Structure formats: structure tokens, C-alpha cells
Amino acid sequence: MSIWGRRKAMDAAHRPGTATLRRTLGWPHLVALGVGAIVGTGILTLTGVGAGLAGPGVILSFVIAGAICACAALCYAELATMIPASGSAYTYSYVAIGERVAWIVGWSLILEYSVVCSTVAVGWSGYFAGFMQAIGLPLPAALAAGPDAGGVFNLPAVLIVAAVAGLLLVGTRESATLNAWLVLLKLAALVMFVVLALPHFDAANFNPLMPYGFFETVGPDGGKRGVMAAAAIIFFAFYGFDAVSTAAEEAKDPGRDMTIGIVGSMAACVLIYMAVAAAALGALPFGDFAGSPEPLAHVLRSLGQGQAAKIFGIVAIVALPTVILAFLYGQTRIFFVMARDGLLPERAGAVDAKSGVPVVTTVATAAVVAAIAAFLPLGEIAALANAGTLAAFVAVGASVMILRRTAPDAPRRFRLPAAPLFGWGAILGCLYLFLNLPTGTQLRFLGWNVIGFLVYVGWAARHSRTLSRHNDGA
Fold this sequence. Notes:
CATH superfamily: Amino acid/polyamine transporter I
GO cellular component, one term: membrane
Order of helices and strands: HHHHHHHHEEHHHHHHHHHH
Oligomer: single chain
Pfam families: AA_permease_2 (PF13520)
GO molecular function, one term: amino acid transmembrane transporter activity
Number of domains: 1
Protein name: Amino acid/polyamine/organocation transporter, APC superfamily
Distance between the termini: 5 Å
Strand order of the largest sheet: 1-2
Membrane topology: Multi-pass membrane protein
């Protein structure tokens, strides 16, 4: 056993007597799961937040965050085909590095997935409230937002989380099929936005390109601004492909389907984001939509496309929950695997015999997600989610390079070319983005992991039952 704790065998999830999930998903389901997770609040809502931090330079923030995510996505693709088990970065670091690092990654993933669901629920609530206002049925202000946004309780956010959790409880394949149709609807709405906004493109809106600078600067309110500060937040808009890796144990042909699902969804979304961001920034000065909770719909209304804005809002209301579905699905699978390894209570790993769904973890996760969405603001939630994701991506980049040395002959259906280049690209890029997160976010993330360390030492380490690589359990 190394200083990082015992390591899990690659085939531990498939040993006799181990609880497993049903293989019901093909690559179209996985691509849709990835696109559904990636294309969501990031482009529909955080475009305005990023523009407020970087001005037109937010387009560069998209490029930088996308490049770093691409490095991580390729690392995920190799590991997902090499270790076709649920658990994502938690499982990969458990196999490559050891239990202690895996716990930190798993604890960070709990933060990522849960908080992402909450962030999207808050973003969805903004579109829903805007739509209700547009049709003359405004929601009471107290029930349309959390305390920091001038309300008391974000009721729409809670209700959408409950609805998505109910869908997941029906069954994995059923949820994935509905998700695929909703993803197509969402993509159609983004195409409509680009088609309507591009005729109003004005290059003058990009001058100056970087009004707040490239590297981190401090604004009048004491907060971080600049292209890199925005990239640390915009980063939220790109990840989601990691949710695909949590489905490895439910893929019909993991070696083929995981590669297509992860790389395909990431590549498609990079192209979509560049087109949408360029159209929005070219059509309207960034200051006009930087503070809007529904920036793309706001752009359409400002261009005199009121009906299109309503349609866009309706599509966002209907299709944005695909992101919640993807991440809530991913979170329950992380809980499932950690419970199967003994690091969480055994009941969390129980799978319903009829639906094949981990019911307890789905319900419990939805309750926590709803509580966060009800009371916390979007910007702070998104930044905290980014911290957890960045930690996981660093571990994945390291795991690829470690397994190239410790298991060079292990089967790899997808073999990453120039692994050190992409592995270090993911590690160094994510560390740099972490340093550009708000200081308060960094401290909250540190506090979260201090709590996690206490949970591990006080309970999880004593209940671990993971099978080691070695027969002696070392």
C-alpha cells in the first residue's frame, strides 16, 4: 500500500457478487447525455456573467476554457475505455493513485455534480420567471429567487429538481431517450439564435476587446476581472462530458461508446459555443446584457425579436433540465460507487430491482440540490462547482500518465496520442484556472475538503472494503 492508500483493481467492479448497473445505453444516448450536460446554463446564462468580467474578451475566455477542457476530455476518453466502470475521476484515481486521493476526488465530485445541478436549476428559474412575466403571469418576487437575489425562496428551482429526479427514478434508458429529444430541441433553439443575431453583427462591439485586461485584475468592487478570471467561470460552460464517464458501467460497448460519447459531445459543443458567443457579442454591446439572468433571450428582445425571444425562453424552460438530468444522474452514480467501495453507507449503493436505479441516492441528492438552489445565488454556486471540477480534472490528467507507466500493456480501445502533452495541459491549465477563481470560492473549497478529510478519517477509512490490485489486499 502506497502513501496514497490502497489501489483498486481495474476489474473490481466486475468481480462476482459485486452490485452492478444494467448495460442499456448506446453511443447516441451518451453523446446526447454529454451535449445535454454541456450545452446549458453555461451558454444560456453565464454568457452574461462572463461578459461582465471580461467584456468582449469573453470570447477568448471561451477559447481558453475550451482548450483546457479538451485536454481533460481526451484523458477521460482513454481512462473510460480502459476502466469501464462507474465513478468517473473517482474510480480512475482509485485505480491509478490510491484511496486517499480517490476520496478527495470523490468528495470534490460530490461538490461539482450537486452544485452544478443547483446552478442550472437557478438558471432555469430565471428563464421561467422571465417567460411568466412575458405572458402576463409574473411570479411573486419572494418565490422567484433566493435571498441574495432579492427573494426569499426559489420555488421554480426546487420544483424542476424534483421533476427531473422523478424522471430518473423511472429508469435510465427511459430518461436517456427523453433527454436525447430535448437536446435536439435545445440545439435547434441555439441555431435560431445565431441565425437571427448574425445579421446585426457589428465589429465595433469588440472594441476594446479586453477592457479589463487579459490576466487577473481587481475591479472596483474588489472582485477579480479580466479574460482569465472570466475563463475560470466560463469553464463551467464546457464541462459536462465527465458526466458521460459516469455511465461507463451502463454502456453496451464501453470501449467504443465512451470514446464517441466523450470526444464527440465535447467537439460538437466547442463549435456551438463559439458561434453563439460571437453572435451575441457582435449583435449587442456586452454591457447591455452582462447583468441579465437570461442574456440570449435579452439579446433577441433588444433586436426587436420579441416572438423569437419568447420561443427561445420556452425552449430553455423545456430543454435546460437536460443538464440537471445529466449531472443528477452522474452524482447518483458517484454515490453508488463510493458506497459500493464502503466509503459511504451501504444503503446508498442499493439498486432498485425493477428500474435498475439507485433510489436512495437519487432522492437524497435531489433534496440537497433543491435546498442549495432555493437559497444561493448563481454566480457563487457556479464558481464553487468549478473548484470541484478542476480538482477532478487534475486527478484525471495525472491518472493517465501514471497508468502509462504502471500498466503500460493494459488494453486501451482509445489511446491518447502525446499523453504527457495533454495530461500536463489538463493539470497545469486547471491549476491556473483554480488560482483565478474568487478568493472566497477557494476558501470555501478548502473548507469543504477539510470537512471531507474529517469524514474520511472518522468513518470512511475504517469501512473501506475496496479490492486491491494485489491478492493480499495491500
